[in-house]
Amino acid sequence: MIDDDLVDALAQLSFLVQNALAEIAGRHDLSLIQTRMLGILRDHEPTMQDLGRHLGLDKSSISGLVDRAQRRGLVTRVPTAADRRVTLVSITDEGRRLAAQGAAEFAEHIAALTATLPPDDRRTLTALANRVITASRIP
Amino acid sequence: MIDDDLVDALAQLSFLVQNALAEIAGRHDLSLIQTRMLGILRDHEPTMQDLGRHLGLDKSSISGLVDRAQRRGLVTRVPTAADRRVTLVSITDEGRRLAAQGAAEFAEHIAALTATLPPDDRRTLTALANRVITASRIP
DNA sequence: CCGAGACGGTTCGTGGTACAAACTAATTAG
DNA sequence: CTAATTAGTTTGTACCACGAACCGTCTCGG
Q1: Which of B10, B105, B116, B120 to mutate to test the interface with A (most CBs of A within 10 A)?
Q2: Model's pTM, two decimal places?
Q3: What letter does residue B117 receive in the DSSP assignment?
Q4: Which pLDDT tens digit goes with each residue over A10-37?
Q5: All domains of chain B, ordered by start, with CATH?
Q6: Which residue of A6, A118, B87, B135 shows the fewest CB atoms closer than 10 Å?
């Protein structure tokens, strides 16, 4: 296989990014998964199940995740009248605040990581990454 | 910040790679962290503490990690005569087999993800990723 | 040389994460 | 109107991670 270098580079890069994410989350006493959840809830008010689908988690895992976030006031459960089985998950102001702050710190961290790259290279990297991402979604 | 796109692209790409890693690990009933450990042990026979440093884990976490891997016959504890406090962690043949297989599957997965990129672009992506990685190590 | 402290690992207690299986309440299908 | 399905919760198990307390083993200063 010629592309061992690519494999290594992408693996290491992913750890770099994930570690940054985890470190920033930890700064606010959040886990990676909680941060991801808040990120989703910034733009959506999904059902438990939809949330689970977004995060790739079992419904029982979602129950616990939402429980803990709710206990900390980051999230609320909203019952629905139409179908009384389903409950929506909604982010609170406090959760939104945390999410925004984490996102900002993360952006800053990535900016620092890529500061040595000239703007053209940054654009190229963005474009290539996006090509890989869209390629992964089509099949 | 102009580079929101870069931030998003790198974050998503990292999840793509990590999910692939986790999925492949899970196929062999391994966790991501166990896979990382085996990957390290392929080329090293470190002390508990060194292993912890490589993985960024507390020594108490390493004890448990090695316990579980040892129970499954992937790893052994090797006492040292020179300093009877330290114990080395050594990969077993079975562990090596699993690590090799996982690495192969991962490489294949990445190859599939990047199959749509022409070779030149793959090389560019590798080079850019490596620039970011080395940049992160120097400070 | 020997006792105080440093060091490497383990153990224990706590809490987050994840799943599967069993369960409840509500809805929908036949 | 009953039977099957669906959304979510609960329970039990296992992993992961940490800090604090602990046990042997070294090492160093006096």
Answers
A1: B10
A2: 0.91
A3: S
A4: 999 999 999 999 999 999 999 999 999 9
A5: 4-112 (1.10.10.10)
A6: A118
